[in-house]
Amino acid sequence: MSSNELRKKFLQFFKSKGHAIVPSSSLLPDDPSVLLTTAGMQQFKKYYTDEADPMRDFKSKSATSVQKCFRTSDIDEVGDECHLTFFEMLGNFSFGGYFKKEAIAYGKEFFDSIGLEIEYVTVFSGDKNVPFDEESFKIWGELGIKDIRKCGREDNFWGPTGAEGPCGPTTEIYINGLEVWNIVFNEFYQQPDGVLKNLKTPGVDTGMGLERLAMVSQKKQNIFETDLFSQILDILPGTISERQRRIISDHLRASTFLFSDGIEPSNKEAGYILRRLLRRALVYEYISSMPPQIFESAMIEVIENYGSFYPELKSKQENIIKAYWMEREKFSKTLAKGIKELEKSESIDSRKAFNLYETFGLPYEIIKEFSGSKSSSLTRDSFDEEFRKHQEKSRAGQEKKFGGHGLMLDTGELKAKDDEELKKVTCLHTATHLLQAALRKVLGEEVRQMGSDITVERTRFDFSFPRKLTEEEIKKTEDLVNFAISQKLEIKMEEMDIDNAKKSGALYFFKEKYPTRVRVYSAGDFSKELCGGPHVKNTQEIGRFAIIKEEASASGVRRIRGKIIP
């Protein structure tokens, strides 16, 4: 059964059981606790905690999805037979609609429907805080499963590490010795101090990796032999090692999806992950003397292979390929020099490794792999520590540059080289606050900031919204911003505790990690946001604001570009 067939079979199976089919959310999550989307349940968190109503949003207490996921923890391991960065997670979710009996029965029935036999299952054995999951054990037995194994908290209890959130015992399904499906029973809520409290409405959260399901369904020895990778690997030359072929295919596939969700290569956050992947692959290409068109062909194959299920790949193909070549061009200018510097270095510690990265763009993985014994003391942790020190120095320099105002509290930066430019970006910064407030007044409170970037010439604001704006909505938004400007609203700043700031109704960027004390900027009653500045003192300083473009940025994310008209 092909991967496309498996996706469809899974979704249709759960649709027949009363589940609403929910599209994959972006790889950029609406969740400040993670850098990228790591699991199918992330977009459903608020339904387990009663912050949102599934009946209102889905017309059902049950949902199913195929979610795009990315885990940065496995980057260094990619190249073996099982580790990946990007993957797809099949999941079914219940928010009080059903619990253990139905969830386990669905698991057994689904595998029966596609002709796969369960080898064995595991259930939670219990500990001092949570008892043995006897109910799941009995249900599996009643369904005819003979091999039911009891495992401890490490294997069969899911909960947020070092954080708060829904959690509970799990049962896992194995086929041919491979864990294929994990079914989580969210019975508890883990508080910040680690204490568990019973959830008012227990729920079900499951996750099954499509790559593993394809592997057992297609009777392959590893995930790279499945149809998810075979066509990409066929494009790569057989003269390079199998490990390098796997790394390149994984990294190009992941990069294509990151590009499609509006992520751009940079030196921080998700953009840094994308840059690492691309540059690692490009080093292999350089060393192996591959023709430059091969990588483009591989990325187009990803788009063709996945485009029928993820249409955003096809609609953004031109932008994806263009962005790839731009990053390639940037890196190629220093790549050869970086490799030579790496080869002539007698020893490489974390500081030297970071200098190679900062000067020549060489990723940690390449430095470690090609330096051999010269980097025996170099570890990922020590390299990341050097990176962190560099970021702190850069941040301090920016704060000094802006007279203590610091950076915007979003994924973009205020860029200004002198006082004149600082004045321009300050006006655009305040105008961006007014723009978000206006969008929420025109389109509704579902609008949330997803990122922004301000230069001397323009502001670029990304926000959550499922469709293209009409010309009338764009004009109404622009007019509202200019109305606020014309009212000569005073910009007031108030310092307060983060919790009180959020309770006050101030908007905040969910990806930002805020300190315990924050600044709240208000423009009359028109807008109110957590921010670090800088801002104008009165909206009349801004001048006339114009929206110059509205476009898609990622799946479910729109982008507006605006400027100040003198």
Shape, per Cα inertia axes: globular
The CATH architecture name of the largest domain reads 2-Layer Sandwich
How much of the polypeptide forms β-strand, as a percent range? 15-25%
Oligomeric form of this entry? single chain
The average pLDDT value, as a whole number, equals 88
Radius of gyration: 25 Å
Q: Give the number of DSSP strands.
A: 16
CATH topology name of the largest domain: BirA Bifunctional Protein, domain 2
Number of structural domains: 3
Q: What name goes with the CATH superfamily of the largest domain?
A: Bira Bifunctional Protein, Domain 2
Low-confidence stretches: 398-405, 407-413
> N- to C-terminal separation?
61 Å
Helical fraction equals 40-55%
Task: Note the total helix count.
Answer: 19
- How would you classify the helix and strand content by structural class? alpha+beta
Family: Belongs to the class-II aminoacyl-tRNA synthetase family.
Keywords: Aminoacyl-tRNA synthetase, ATP-binding, Ligase, Nucleotide-binding, Protein biosynthesis, RNA-binding, tRNA-binding
GO molecular function: alanine-tRNA ligase activity; aminoacyl-tRNA deacylase activity; ATP binding; tRNA binding
Enzyme class: ligase
